[in-house]
Give the backbone structure.
Amino acid sequence: GQVWHAQVMPDDYADPKHCTSSGDLKPRRPTPQIRASDFFGQLRQTEDGRWFFKQQLNGWPGLVELELRSVTCKVRTKLGVGFIKRHWDALQSGRTQPSFPAQMRSVRVTLYAPSWTLKGWSEDSPGFAFWAAMQNAGGVKVFHGEDMVRAVKNRSFSNLQGFDPATTTATRVHLFAHRYSKAVEGPKDKLTWHTGLLMEWSHGLFTTVFELAW
């Protein structure tokens, strides 16, 4: 499955850059973060000796059932030279229970997601794409992966009336591009543009935006 990395912090970690005003770690960070006791205390071992973190990681609903593969930390020699030390490894440490190394400021854990995550965001609907379909009264229904195709075939994607998906055709397409709004722009920001396509349909009830982003 997909490979994820997360930072595990000591239980007394309180950096305001990464913590809320109440002292909790900020949720859903680009690199997930978690406290040592919350991570290592909730690891569960399978009969074949593997260790899994089964809870949501850092508040991300999709990061569950993750297999722990390694625990690494950055250390320095007496001469001040930094290097990465492997504290625990799934292949070498056998059934030894993983732990947070003493006196470390943080460690990085490498985690494997289930194999189906290489094909999509959910096990029963492969495909890395999503569609936000308009509903009555301005509502929106979201589909992803192969569920988008199934929703069109059984016409469950929208409760709007007055059009037939089987006979609807595109009448116009518009290309647009924009930069991202930032208070202070750097050189990279001035060269970064995002583009999309705005599609008009023959029924005239709504338009659709197509875009690629990751």
In short: The chain has three helices and twelve strands. Residues 147 and 214 are 20 Å apart (CA to CA). The first strand starts at residue 3 and ends at 9. The chain has a mean pLDDT of 92.
